[in-house]
Every structure is written in structure tokens, then in C-alpha cells.
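If your schedule permits, I should be very grateful for your opinion on a structural question. I have a record of one protein: its chain in single-letter code and its fold written as C-alpha cells. Would you kindly read the sequence against the C-alpha cells and tell me how you understand this chain to fold? Thank you for your consideration; the sequence and its C-alpha cells are set out here.


***
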Amino acid sequence: MQANEKAGASPLLPLPYTASPNRNSLKRNIALSLAFIACGTYVWLAPEWIVHNIVRKHHPTDTQCAQSAVLTPAKNGALWDSVSVAFGTEGFKAKAVEWIGGAVRVPTESYDDMGAVGEDPRWDAFAPFHDYLLGAFPLVHSTLKLTKVNTYGLIFTWQGSDASLKPLVLMGHQDVVPVNPETVLEWTYPPYSGHFDGERVWGRGSSDDKSGLIGALTLQCVAEHAKDLDEEYRKTIKRAAKSKKYLRKLEKAIVKNNVYASLVGTTQAIDIIEGGVKANALPERAFAVVNHRISVISSVGEVQAHDTELLRGIAEKLNLTYSAFGKTLSEDGASSAGTLTLTDAYGTALEPAPVTPTSADAVPWNLLSGTIKATYNSHRSLTGTDEIIVSPGMPSGNTDTRYYWGLTKHIFRYNHSNAGNKANRLGGVHTINENIEIDAFVEIIRFFATLILNTDEATNL
């Protein structure tokens, strides 16, 4: 919400609203953390009783997907109405294009093997991005307190007037997945051009790493509210919450769809393979990095045990000395034709994130879901109470929120990115032709403005 960021720019706020002389009119502290995220990839389903217990725990009533009311700011209503109008103007859209396009044009690639800050020169790529942020958002830098963590981590604190209130923490990441030089010519527009074609901004980092959400809890919302769902499938989903028989039936239906199966179970993706130096010479050694994204109902230990058993037969067949995760599994002193070793590639194995409360009495969840509905309605000039259905789900990757697991149970891995009916709902994330529709980006801005104002006036957090 940066009004008149540059001298001579058209006002982004309409005239009826008069800003307070004190820009810091919020009661609650707001913290924005811009850090670095190392994401992982995971597909086997957990025992049925675990899923059954999760469904029962989070949906104790007959209504499997209770909906929050549309939540719009009241005390901050005049401000919200004012910025809502501003967000719909062509002038604001032009500024949004400038902001996201400028950010894309500063490459901030990060790698799995980054050394320490100050020693590895690849970290230096983030300094120009900080310069860009300062130039693009001068009011943020002059009004909010900036704390730098380990040189390149940024924490902006918007100090509230009531220190007794719990804060709101918003997290984002500055880094992007590197662009493979061999694929540059396959991009419709250069990967760091930030090109705007009148509808979309193109480039690495334009679309955030937010996958579609699906899972047992989400399916309950589908069964409760989807109008065109096959009635037999609806019956199966709803009965699965209380019946092991129908839960098994639902599992069989889910695994037939590769996308759904990958989002409710553990997956594995072989992302890096290397070995050999010449086409006519067998490699003396080879390695592969397998990226697992672990289901919320599994564990690191279970994944390691699965991988260990998966390769045991190969080690025996090829007479290889076999060790897995620090344990030698081959017979001591036995002759071998070579070695096979399984390790945690980067020493960063991470347990699945705790499940965030989403029951009908979970206040933070109701605030978030009510804000989502309000944002959706405001962006489309709608007034209904259930124009969309908001459901909990399971993200397909873990995040840096692990550093906050001991601080709060109410952590939401959510980015208000409306993919609509696009064939590629991920917007090319982490691959060729990453892009974002500018209308969707403006709606993201609208969402965060609404969330901040709703959180600031909440009295029951």
C-alpha cells in the first residue's frame, strides 16, 4: 500500500480518504520476514487408521467443512474501502507491473551447496535486490524498522501501539531456483526480463512456490460443497470420515490420480544425476540426489527405512558393500565389487510440519479463511457469503516455518494466488516460462492489506 512512491506519480489512494498524520495507526505489531527458503519433493499412503484419526480429530461434527463468515475490517473500514477502490484502478495495476517486473529483473539464484555468507560470492547477488527494494518502497524503509539477519535476511517490523497484543508475522523468500542455461532459448521471454505482455509478467520468481492443495481434509470440503460431484463419490468421501471401509475405498480412488496421490502421500523425485566423463567409458563413480517431500502422516525415519529396503536387493545382486544413513548393512570383511551408500545429501532432513488447527473454534483459522473470502469478493465486486469455499489442505513442500514450530501452532502456509482455470496452475514455478497474471498479483496485494487490517482489529487472538 505505497501511495505516491515516486514524485509526480498519480495518487494510488482515492481522494475521499484522508490519511492520518501518524502513518503507524495499527495496534498490533506486524513483522515481515524476507528470508531464504530451501524447499524439498514425496508417494505412499499412511496406514488407514492414521488418516481416519486425522479426519475425526479435525472434523468432530456432522458438518465436515464448516465455513467462516466473510470477514471485512470494521474499525479500519474506511481505509479498507479506500484501498479496495485503489486496487481496482489501472494506475495501481501499472504500479504492480512495475514492482513485480523490477523484482524479477534482479536475479537472486540460490543453490544447495551455498557456503557461508562472506565466503561464498554467490550471496552477493542479494545486495542489488535490497537496493531495488529500497528504491521501490521508500515509505516502507522510512516507516518500518529494518533488522538484517546474517547480512541478507530482512525483517521489517511495523510497531503497533499495544505491545500486549500478539503479533502477525508474514514470511516470504528472496531467492529463486536457478535457470538452467540450456533452457534459456525455450522461454517465451528471457527468464529475468520481467516482461509484461499486457496480461502476465514473465520471469523466474514471478510466481511463488505454492502448489495446489488437496488431501483428506480438502476432500471433505469437496463432498460438502461441490455441486457437480458424482453422488456416489460424494457419499464415499463423507462416509470415509467415520468408516474404515469407505476410507479404503476413498484411498483406492485417490491413488488412481497421480496428482492427488502425490499431494497426500510421500513422493520422491530424482532431481540430480551425475557420473562419467566420456561416452565410451563407464563411470568410476556416480551419484543421484533423490528429493523426498514427506507426508504429514509419515516421518524422516520411515522414509529412510523405505529407501534402505528399496536398494538392499540391488546391493546384494551386484555384490556391493552397502551402508545407509550411517549404518553398514553388509557383512563385515566380505569381498565386494564396489560400494553403495545412502546419506542425507545436505544434512537437512526435516520432519513434516505440525498440523495447524482448523476446527470451527480455531480463531486464527477463521480469521484467515474469512479474510480469503472477503478478498475474493472485493476483487470481483461480489457480496455473497459463500461465493467460494475455503478448505484446509496439505502443502506439497515444507518451508522455513520450521523455525517457528515452537512459537505457535497457528502457522498457515498460504499464498493468495488465484490460478483460475489455467492448464498449468503452478504458473511454471521452478521451470520454463514461469509467469503470473497481473490481476492475480493485484489480488495478492489486496489479500495482504485485508489480512493486516483484520488482524489488527481482532480482539480474540
The radius of gyration is 25 Å.
